[in-house]
Amino acid sequence: MATYNGSRFIREQLESILLQLPTESEIVVADDGSTDDTLSVVSSLNDSRIRVLPAESHLGVIYNFERALHSAKGDIIFLSDQDDVWLPRKVEKVLDLLKTCDLVMHNAYMSYDGVRGSRLSEIRPYARGLFRNWLKNSYHGCCMAFRRSVLEKALPFPKKLPMHDQWLGLIAEKYFKVGYLPEPLVDYRQHTMNATHLGNSSAGLFKKIKWRLDLFKALQSI
User: CB of 111 within 8 A of CB of 187?
Assistant: First the structure.
């Protein structure tokens, strides 16, 4: 989990995760220099499974996630945002599919002010394929889990990535077996402080082309 000024929702998110984790699991919380009481809320949960990485510098969401991933010790890694809610049996269902594949994507409910709206698949349908996801990403970090073998291939992140979850998805598409669960397993909270937003990107055409060229070059180098 990468955190930055997430005190408003982080307790509910962490509680929804901790309920599903066995005692030998860990939650790596990489903070990116929060100026609110995010870390105080995390500390107040007083759970030995939570391991906090204090900020060393402000990295931004992509490379703060990379820092968390570098520190993760487990054989199975789940990505988590700071402001969503994991639905019951998410871990169980994802682990079951990971018995036969290397990375799992699942569906989510879009949540607006605590009210569920449409499914993520209705807004951004998931689709397989390296070229398709290079051109238009359908991998979302809050809905992803993968084996350490995927992580070892994906790290270190290339410079100037547009999205960390897209990079992990492309690595899995190129080198590993991907599975998809159409069932929503997360309430994907939408609010004004989201680090990323679905819908039309504000990036200009030149930047979008450059992002894809940089991704293409990075994929060719590994």
Answer: yes
- Residue the block writes with tokens 């077996």: 177
Joined together, the tokens standing for residue 11 give 């307790």
d(CA 108, CA 114): 14
Instruction: Give the domain extent around 182.
Output: 2-220
Could you read off the pLDDT of 9-46 as tens digits, one per residue?
999 999 999 999 999 999 999 999 999 999 999 999 99
8 Å CB contact between 104 and 97: yes
Reply yes or no on whether the pLDDT at 202 is more than 80.
Answer: no
Contact 3, 43 (CB under 8 A): no
| The pair of three-digit structure tokens given for residue 180, joined into one six-digit string | 């998809």
Rounded Cα distance between 139 and 156, Å, is: 19
Closest Cα partner for 65 from 193, 176, 196, 173?
Answer: 196
Question: From CA 154, how far away is CA 169, in angstroms rounded?
Answer: 9
Give the chain's domain count.
1
pLDDT (tens digit, 9 = 90+) per residue, 85-136?
Answer: 999 999 999 999 999 999 999 999 999 988 899 999 999 999 999 999 999 9
